[in-house]
Amino acid sequence: MRPLVLSPLRLTFLASVMSAASLSTAALCALDRPPEGALGRRAIRVFTDRDGLPQNSVESFAFDRQGFLWLATRDGAAVYDGRTFRIVNMPTRKASNWVRAVLAAPDGSVYFGTEGGGLHRLRNGAFTSWNRAHGLPGDNVRALGLSGGGVIVGTDAGAAQLTGDSLLVTQELEAVRGKSVLSVGELRGRVALGTATDGVFAGGARLPGRLARVNALFFHDGALLAGSDTGLFRFTEGPTDPVAVPGFEGVIVRSLSAEGDDLLVGTEGRGLLRLGAGHATPLTVRSGLPSDIVFHAQARNGQLWIGTLAGLARETAGDLVAFDSTQGLPNDSVVSLLETRTGEGDRTLYLGTAGGGLAALANGAMRVYGTASGLPDPSVFALLQADGRLFAGTGKGLSVLVGERFVNVKAEPPLPAEAVVSLLSTLERGNRVIYAGTYGAGLFRLEWSGPERPARSTRVELPDGRVEALLLVSNPDRIVIATNAGAVILDPATNERFVLAPPELPNAIVRSLWASGGSLFLGTGGGLVETRLGKGKPEVLRLLDTTTSPALPNDTVYRLEAASGQLFAMTGRGIARVQGAPRTWDSSDGLPSNECNFGASTVDADGRLWIGTPRGAAVLDPRADRRPPRSPLVVKAAHGPSQSPRTPGLSLPHDARNVTFELTLLSFRKEEGTLYRTELVGLGTAPSDWTPDPHRLYATLPPGDYVFRAWGRDGLGVESAVSETAFTVRQAPWATWPARLLFLALAAGAVWAVVRIRLARLESQTRRLEAAVAERTRELVASREEALEASRAKSLFLANMSHELRTPLNAILGYAELIEEESDERERSRHASDLARIRAAAQHQLQLVNSVLDLSKIEAGKMELVSDDFLVAALVRDVASLVPPLVARNGNRFVLEGPPEDLWITADATKLRQSLLNLLSNAAKFTENGVVALRVSVEGPDIVFRVSDTGIGMTPEELAKLFQPFVQADASTTRKYGGTGLGLALTKRFAELLGGSLVVDSTRGVGTTMTLRIPKAGKS
Fold first, then answer.
1. Whole-structure pTM over 0.90, yes or no?
2. 3 state SS of 919
3. pLDDT, tens only, 490-501
4. DSSP three-state, residue 50
């Protein structure tokens, strides 16, 4: 039978919460076996405030009709779209931002129950609120539910029903007036309410049994379940007290829900229990939950969402599960795997660990072999079944299992006490031969004749002593040996050998081997190589790596294994299917670690692939590669200068022809792999490539009718249905055909009237007009010539000034340096200060000339931008390296809060660097014994650079003339600190050239903050 394993800790815990009593016919029953297919644990991802949650205590959540996830936390609400969390604060935030309950209504509204702030409804982006002043029994809203088309609101002083915008305490809700309502449910069409002190009420009457703090109500399998602070209870028919579910005595039950036929019980301190017919599976911190206090759980589309005290968890049901120490392994680092089978059908799965010995799984039980069982070392790197015996390659040699103990393999001459990392068994001339590859001492051939007699050993000469893998290929029989100096193909009969090594291979380190259909696959440190086997040296056919199609997740291929007719490559960053439909698996799919261990994989009799990693084993069932259902694609459109949101069916005016679309694929599966493709029908463009960018901008569209088409593809490759949004760009009113016809008619009538009325005066008026036109033409020609002459004079003046000013300044700098170099030591010391002053004055004058010329170029429209893509962090580090001398000059301290390392920007790096240096230099100049800080952050589409100081600050009057060239705050500032006022003026114009802005916030005597905002996309 298939080995299904539970750890002793898990068995003990489940035995404590299950008993022979049943919870309805298909719910809880005695635990006599684990559930079919319950081997391992699913992938769990945790979301916390680091991912964007406003606070980590997720007390409730709900999916709205579009598929967005709304969460209630103790510091506001949040909505998750599969890409980002958007924080939603309550309108009564100052009074209370603690959200206890959230409810998504069928009409698209979302309701929030707060602690101390009443009830809030969010509909079409606007809030409506109710509290005690509006008829709500209490301002502490603890529970929300739907019933009869209305919303049931449970508060600390009773319950009310909200229908439309009206609050009403119905007759059946009168029974809980003044009582604290903690939960809302339904019992056969009646509203059920759980209270803090008086048990459960249904249909206006209290049910038998006075339970303490009924936190959850749930109708499941024909019965009403109540979760309280003292356990789990089931209400039966008739006037009897509720039945306590065995195993939950004293357990605080916080939530109840269902996943298929299974019941989900959220507890305080014991995590989440999944209860079904014949099984109970706990999810706890050991399983990957952020906390064992579970407030809420909900199953949706093959995923289980769990709100806890320390974050939101998501468990995904897929084709891969993890198997580690939480299921009983003695060590998480699994370095070898093998399933053995007997003629009677008995199966045992062996898992060799690094330092924890050898684990054997059979018939649901686990046994661990260690040094006390005869193993010379607790690290088992290789496993082999030959002649009905189990061989184990350990860190100190080769052992064989005899009875219930391992004994060292005897050999003449003896094998070295080296780590045996690969094993191979073959028949040569009818005799059993075992090849043992070591990690340093080479390959040894053993003529095996049983554990009692020493095996004759021979060392096989190889180009390298590290033997990573061994493989037997047939027709003719040859042995392929993977070493750190290439692959060796050895013919044992003739001792003929061939070597595959660079340049035929991308890397000399060969770690894994596989042969199939006349092809030999070699996993190397530089990718996967496929060769064609023949009688001679194999022919290299192709290479797969991170740059090919299909691509590997990593170039290092640790292991190759075939299952269900598909070849899988275990790499340093996940698993890749290289034969069959391309796909990868990583930690987001449940892989315990993205790095796989070399030599650690096997396929069991059920066709499941076992993979060893440093954090446990993974079990992948290729037959269960289910394609999840399509996810909805939400398209939001905005247009106009303010980019205000619009609904589908846009009609854009002629003067607002820019439209932006934001795409959201609500898949919640491997979100980082979500891609989008779009097409604008009517613009003559083909569908775009798949990109992760969810935004599309179309600018200055010509008038006409358009259809925007969009597709989404999740991280598993499942595409959404096409989403279409039709919109129209209207013609200008004067450009429409009716307007043109009207203009034509009016013009004809006007011409006819003018001709009839003014025919006699036309000739004289024409002559006067001609004279006036001629005179005006002469004036315009003269003005144009004067303007052109002035422009040429200005350009010539700037060119001459550039040469005339820079040439003597450069000469002064050069002669100063020459005099300093040529003077002897005595002369140098006497004139050093004078030469330094000359250099400083000339450099300062040269800087002023360059600034004036830059301003002139900008004003003349001749300044050019040289945009490129670069990392913001690199530029900031470059600028920061120049700042310490400037800051230290006045005894200041420099503070840098840099951007993320992977933040890119498209802009002119030189002008951005000069702008930051100007701002930092200015801040350091006007600050003494204070702090100068540079803080970089991302705000929407912009990257914001804030340069702040604790210097002298400015008054509003001084701020008004701050960015004018050659102007400073006042005359005293210039006398004390120097400068010309060019730096800030130039920086502001650079910011505008880059498509951004520069604003200042300053208080006299407190300090100044300069905010430079540059778009990430930049301005080409």
1. no
2. helix
3. 988 888 899 999
4. helix
